[in-house]
Design brief:
The complex is a heterodimer of chains A (189) and B (575). Chain A has 189 residues and is an alpha+beta fold. Chain A is built from four helices and nine strands. Chain A is 24% helix and 37% strand. The longest helix of chain A is centred in the middle third of the chain and has 13 residues, at 65-77. The N and C termini of chain A lie close together (11 Å). Chain B is 38% helix and 16% strand. Chain B contains 25 helices and 20 strands. In chain B, helix 3 (49-63) packs parallel to helix 5 (81-89), helix 3 (49-63) packs across helix 19 and helix 17 packs across helix 18 (390-398). Classes of the chains: A alpha+beta (189), B alpha/beta (575). The interface between A and B is medium-sized, with 31 and 32 residues.
């Protein structure tokens, strides 16, 4: 254990926000890096940013702090990667979005909708024997909703994977001069 | 000026100062080969594209400049793969240019179509697929810049045939225009320097592990200054040989699997490791769990991904090694480590007696003798290029490198077949120097077709084939770890003298130690390429040896029966 009560060798989900050039093959380069170095991706979400030519990825990786630093350094090494931020230990808003198609006929529909209400999920499509429910939230929240919907019969589900944004108005520099060669807090000793 | 894409390729190559391109033409690269005739660049026609990549690699390592290989699409491009992976593992700056089928045909499984940017993605520093003639110039400039800057490495540029044929108004430019995410000049956090200085000041048994980065960053002199001021002993990796003169009193020799026994013991006993531009490869650490457990570790490397990769370190400094040492050295105080240095001398123990050079001359021709004799006869002046295997380790042990960039060898990938083509590349990089390829009978046969390239280009290298009739290093492992069951290691070779003759080259055969000197001198005098077939003892092994995955100080030593015989002889010999 080190100061801050963090154990650098304890496994956990690390979340990286990665800005990349929007060019063909960049997603392949990132995915190939994780495969080649045997880093374990939990989820990867990618989409455009407000700046043309720049895409933003949120990558969740199950690993310890030491390997997480190597993930960060390896991402930086890719020529098309502009900035990497490990937001795991920063105050961050993290969200996942899911669409869940659940069995619901006239006898159960009301019950299903009531459950959705509790989770602030919305029905976005209704057919005589099914509903599509949209929910946004943390993974835990989505999993809890799945839990309560499962008895009714989940027909199909799709999730975006985690997206993340740090709180506050600080925007980190786009081209850091320094790179951490070690995990902070003297964890290597 | 209006230029075709194919011409722009050569415009950039000449602007980059490229003197020689190693390649092999074919359908998808034909426009570029056609344009070549109008530019002042020498082309060397190889016999297999793997040879082109190794030649570019050898050229790059010997010259410190970017080597260039060229091939067509499909099989031409895939044949480059082994050479590219070799360059990647040893951080060698090469640019490979491949033709690709026309952009309209990409993805259709067209004749000789291979997704070579996909194939080479994990084995290049970066690669590009270019289908727009406008992109050829900027991409080529970027390729050279990326290949040579930061931690160098191979870059591949795949250019579709239609882009080579199309014309645009070409404006030469100097620098790469757009690489917003590329940072070859990352720096360490300032507090890392402080921490490093403290550890160096406190250490009583420090040792420097000098790697390839010493030469790549031009830190040879400051390494010596650093070691002398602090009186810290230096050991080198295989690719670090030559980074400090072999004869320097603080240089203890090579570490690792076939390193010096006292060096491996010293690393295990050290209280501080200073890793300078090396990457703790498994061949130098042995078992990581027991590796230098009592030592604090300072790691200086230009590549941040190397820090904490194999060995957890106490201080990681990201940056150019020379610049980093320039910052650290003035802040260090003069030191003495007399007791530690004396102790390392004691660790040598009976190593001198176990050394094959101390064995009595039985008339048998030992590979280690051949290599040591070549060193002595040539006065250590040539640039040596090795292949991979036993001869490579004996070269590292018995050819004493006083100067940097005089050993070119495939370390990380361990690529058999590297020696001959890489030596051809070195020939072009260093036209004035004597070049010897020291190769085994196995590795030589993997790329021996490049002898035709030597003959066609009229170039002079000396090839010493250490011929033991086995895939020697594999045989050694079979002897040690597989109960001498020699599965697929005995190897029949052609008559190498006749092979040389068939190429119009001189071939010599040496079967006794007394013939070595004449053959070496004869080879030096011959204007063309020479092959010497050294018929050495078949079942000799490289000692010491750390078995793969074993503790670094758990070395297999040369059998004591031989040592005792040697001791008897030495005593009987009037000492």
């Amino acid at each position: 254990m080190t100061d801050n009560g963090r154990n650098p060798l304890r496994e956990g989900i690390h979340t990286f926000v990665v800005y990349v050039e929007d060019k063909p093959g960049v997603l392949n380069r990132v995915a190939s890096l994780f495969r080649r170095r045997a880093f374990n991706i939990e989820s990867l979400a990618v989409g455009p940013t407000d700046r043309p030519g720049i895409s933003r990825m949120t990558i969740a990786v199950k690993t310890d702090d030491v390997v997480a630093r190597r993930v960060e350094a390896n991402l930086y090494k890719l020529v098309n990667v502009l900035r990497v931020e490990n937001v795991t230990h920063l105050p961050t808003v993290m969200r996942d979005l899911a669409l869940i198609k659940v069995k619901a006929d006239s006898s159960t529909r009301a019950q299903v909708l009531q459950m959705c209400d509790v989770f602030r999920a919305r029905a976005v499509d209704v057919t005589p024997d099914s509903l599509i429910v949209e929910i946004t939230g943390t993974e835990e929240k989505i999993e809890s909703l799945c839990e309560v919907l499962r008895p009714f019969g989940i027909l199909e589900m799709v999730r975006t994977g985690r997206v993340a944004m740090t709180r506050g108005s600080d925007v980190p520099s786009t081209n850091p001069e320094f790179v951490a060669a070690r995990v902070p807090n003297g964890s290597a000793s | 000026m209006e230029r075709k894409g194919a011409q722009i390729v050569w415009e950039v190559l000449t602007q980059e100062g490229v003197e020689v391109v190693f390649g092999y033409p074919g359908g998808a690269i034909l426009p570029t080969y056609d344009a070549m005739l109008d530019y002042p660049v020498r082309h060397v026609l190889v016999r297999h594209e793997q040879g082109a990549a190794h030649m570019a690699d050898g050229y790059a390592r010997a010259s410190g400049r970017v080597g260039v290989a060229m091939a067509t699409s499909g099989p031409g491009a895939t044949n480059l793969v082994t050479g590219i992976a070799t360059a990647m593992m040893d951080s060698s700056p090469i640019v490979c240019i491949t033709g690709q089928v026309p952009s309209t045909a990409i993805g259709s499984d067209a004749f000789q179509e291979t997704d070579v940017t996909g194939v080479t993605l994990p084995i290049t520093k970066h690669n590009y697929l270019v289908t727009d003639v406008e992109e050829i110039g900027p991409t080529m400039r970027e390729a050279f810049y990326v290949a040579r800057s930061g931690r160098p490495g191979p870059v591949l540029v795949d250019i579709s045939k239609d882009a080579q044929i199309a014309s645009i108004e070409y404006v030469p430019a100097d620098a790469p225009e757009r690489l917003p995410g590329y940072r070859p000049d990352l720096r360490a956090l300032p507090e890392e320097y402080e921490h490093a200085l403290e550890l160096i000041e406190e250490a009583e048994r420090p040792i420097i592990l000098a790697g390839h980065g010493v030469m790549m960053s031009g830190a040879m002199q400051i390494l010596i200054d650093f070691a002398e001021k602090t009186q810290i002993p230096v050991t080198t990796t295989l690719l670090g040989l030559g980074g400090i003169p072999a004869s320097h009193p603080l240089n203890q020799g090579m570490m690792g699997m076939h390193g010096e026994s006292w060096v491996n013991h010293a690393i295990q006993e050290a209280d501080l490791l200073l890793a300078f531009g090396m990457r703790f490869d498994d061949r130098v650490t042995g078992n990581l769990k027991t590796y230098a457990v009592n030592a604090k570790k300072i790691h200086i490397d230009i590549d941040p991904t190397e820090i904490d990769k194999n060995v957890r370190v106490d201080v990681g400094i990201v940056g150019d090694l020379r610049e980093t040492l320039e910052i650290l050295l003035p802040q260090l105080t003069q030191k003495e480590h007399t007791a530690w240095l004396e102790h390392i001398d004691e660790l040598r123990g009976d190593s001198a007696v176990r050394d094959i050079q101390s064995l009595p001359d039985t008339g048998a021709l030992y590979a280690a003798h051949v290599i040591n004799d070549i060193w002595r006869i040539t006065e250590g002046k040539p640039i040596i290029v090795t292949d991979v295997g036993q001869h490579q380790m004996w070269e590292a042990q018995y050819f004493k490198h006083e100067k940097p960039f005089t050993l070119i060898t495939s370390g990380g990938l361990g690529t058999m077949g590297f020696g001959l083509p890489a030596a051809i590349g070195v020939r072009f990089a260093k036209p004035e120097d004597e070049v010897w390829a020291i190769v085994g009978d196995g590795g030589f046969q993997m790329t021996q077709a490049e002898l035709s390239t030597c003959a066609q280009e009229g170039i002079k290298i000396n090839v010493a084939i250490i011929n033991n009739g086995f895939l020697g290093m594999v045989r050694q492992w079979q002897e040690f770890f597989y109960g001498r069951r020699y599965a697929a290691t005995p190897m029949l070779s052609p008559d190498f003298v006749k092979l040389a003759d068939a190429h119009g080259l001189l071939g010599l055969r040496v079967e006794e130690r007394g013939q070595v000197e004449d053959a070496v001198r004869r080879a030096q005098q011959e204007p063309g390429t020479v092959i010497i077939d050294f018929r050495v003892v078949q079942e000799d092994s490289v000692y010491p040896m750390v078995p793969a995955g074993a503790d670094l100080d758990a070395m297999i030593r040369r059998p004591s029966s031989i040592v005792e015989t040697a001791e008897d002889e030495l005593v009987g010999g009037g000492r």
